Amino acid sequence: MEAVIATGGKQYRVTPGQIISVEKLSGDKGSRVEFRSILLVNRDGQVIAEPKALAGARVAGEVVRQGRGRKVSVVKFKRRKNYRRHRGHRQAATTVRITTIEV
After folding, report:
1. What is the pLDDT of residues 29-44, one digit of tens each?
2. Contacts 24+ apart (CB under 8 A), 13-16
3. Which of 60-99 are b and which e, b meaning 16 or more Cβ less than 10 Å from the residue's Cβ?
4. Number of compact structural domains in the chain
5. Predicted local confidence at residue 103, as pLDDT
């Protein structure tokens, strides 16, 4: 069984046991999280995509760790103007292990 969930403005295709990194969620290591925004469920080849059928669906997971993502360099540069700006950014992220998908 697999599902497509939406969290943090992004969509993720998940299966039970999979580990994903999502935008920061509240909760410490070992706490349970629940995703209610389910867009699609594939149950043994039967695809369920109707919002009414997915109203009671949920995907549960467990927080593996809280951390930050990889560094992204932001560089601004204008030639011949002696203008250079260099900044780095690390987005806060939560690593989640998907435990169950219920429809």
Report:
1. 999 999 999 999 999 9
2. 14/59, 14/98, 14/101, 15/98, 15/101, 16/98, 16/99, 16/100, 16/101
3. ebbbeebeeeeeeeeeeeeeeeeeeeeeeeeeebbbbebe
4. 1
5. 85
Tell me: the pLDDT tens digits for 3-21? Answer: 999 999 999 999 999 999 9
Q: Give the structural domain span for 64.
A: 2-102
- pTM, two decimals, is 0.83
